[in-house]
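Table S2 (continued). Query chain:
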Amino acid sequence: MGAATPPVSRLAAALGGAALGAAAGVSWALVEGGLNWASGGTAPADVVRVVFVLDVVFGAVGGAATRAVVPGTSRGMLALVLLLAYAGARVVAPPGVGSELAVLVGGIALLALARRWVAARQSLADFLLLVGLGALALLSGELWLESSRVGVLRGVWLPLACLGLPAAAVVATLALGRVVRRGGVRLAGVAGVLAITALVAGKPLDTAPLVDPVVTGVPPPPGTPDVILVSLDTTRVDRLSTYGYERDTSPHLTRLAADGQLYRMARSPAGWTLPAHASMMTGLFPRSHGAHLAGGFLPGDSVDGRPQVAYPLRAGIPTLAELLRDRGYETGAFVANFSYLYRDYGLARGFGIYDDAPGLLLRARPPMVRLTQLVRPSFCRKPFRTASAVNEAALAWLDARPAGRPAFLFVNYMEPHQPWVADPPYDRWAASLPRAGELARKNLYTHAVRPLDPDTTRFINAHYDGQVTAMDAALGELLDALRQRGRYDNALVIVTADHGELLGEHGQMGHMGRMLYEPLLRVPLVVKRPGGARRGEVIDTPVQLVDLLPTVAQVVGVATPEAVEGKALDDGPRRTYAEEGINPFLVERYGAFYDRAVRVVYDGNHKLISTSRGERMLFDLAADPQESSNRAAAEPERVQELSQQLELGMPHLAAVGPSTEKKVE
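Corresponding output:
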């Protein structure tokens, strides 16, 4: 039996392993950063620093532990151990024991086999080359899989990839060693080739705001009000304490409502971001403004790498920003929803500055991010900018505006959007719930139509409420900032939402593509008029987002375009409509439920939902606010009357297009 390794020698070996592991962490961080940059990802500096530290610490701990247990571990074998640990971190979060065990057993087998080929004495350059190429293989393989729409790493393919791709890196390193003898030359050559490839073939995302410095028209008369339009993305009206919800989720919106008008029956004409905001900005329904689902896949990808499924705003349609710009307003938009409010969709028209940068877009997701989310579930989970960050950019722009011209400021917040994990202290309603820690680590979002268990329902609802509260706090910051700058009293301030969110009702979660039930269509609307006019009014007249443009035009003295389909909010009752097209992405993956377009018409308390498959659902919202009892069979005459009204008022549904007709079980 050999002599035991002295403690001092073991400590020295561990320290040497920690140094090598830290170097491996630096290599991983460089690969992750370079691949994300080249593939169009972006991350704020604080996130980059945190991930860098996590990579270095993970590598250092792994290197120290390996050399402490087996002091004589060669650089080549240590590189392979660290690389397998790096791949194992990808597996841990989640799916669970099966994949983790497969990677553990497979990793041990790979190490046993590699002993025959990995040289006992390798240079530091060889060490760095192996850990870097292995990370590149794992990350780029997963990135290719997702971007080519082949699928995502799951099931048996996950452990196979986490073993096979690092093994391929070992083979590549060994093969390269037979061609180029010197380790430093090999490392420099590979790094150079990768850098040149990234520079030539990379597609980095341009996150700079879109700037159009043109301001037309003479300055309007002194005293012309600023216009502040705030969109609370994905916000259900029934989760706001302003509208009677039991949790105090919106005290700042309530304060604003005391200074203005509270509309209790406001609705969106669409169940998702792009068509709803386009209606907000044009006064037109989706079938008229053209920014709606295409019914099929379009060429190219969206900014976050998904297949294009929607048309942009039709050219030539006047927008609210254009009307106000031509009135002499300075116009600026600061949006959190970089996905469907991205500049390519046409909503930037008329804005002097349009800031649509993502908050975080990790195309190649570092394993350390996944691992950290086991402990801190909210870490790097939300790709959009926080409402506070949006405020900071918006107020900086507002402060730089020249005197003598009013401003039109459009702000979009996105906190209530999934993933539903509120940061402290706004997680207070969720933290003590049963299984809160377990559920926070799961991806609960699904397009599948199925009932939720009670624990999951409570968890999602509590976090949603927390995120609404966080957004309301940011709204309060913005309004206070306007007061401090003397831009509040004479401003027209409008706060609304593009749509709501289903949180388990009818077995559905989310919005886009879902059936157009009330949690999706009823939205908040608070209007504070210049000088405090109409203060404290509560209005039950049905209104819609298409009514915002004519209302702003009326207040500031701009002519409303003739084609506008909305009415100024003061102009009395109007027929209310909504529509939703076919999303081919959802049809392809989730089947027939999504293979239908939807139209909605309201008549007092009655609501008719009509689909392109001939389904008719009639609800009496006064007696049945949960929309649980379909009255269509009991009231065929009312169904016929409202169906005729649909054909008259909304004859050409926006996005009845060719479905994929492919079912995925």
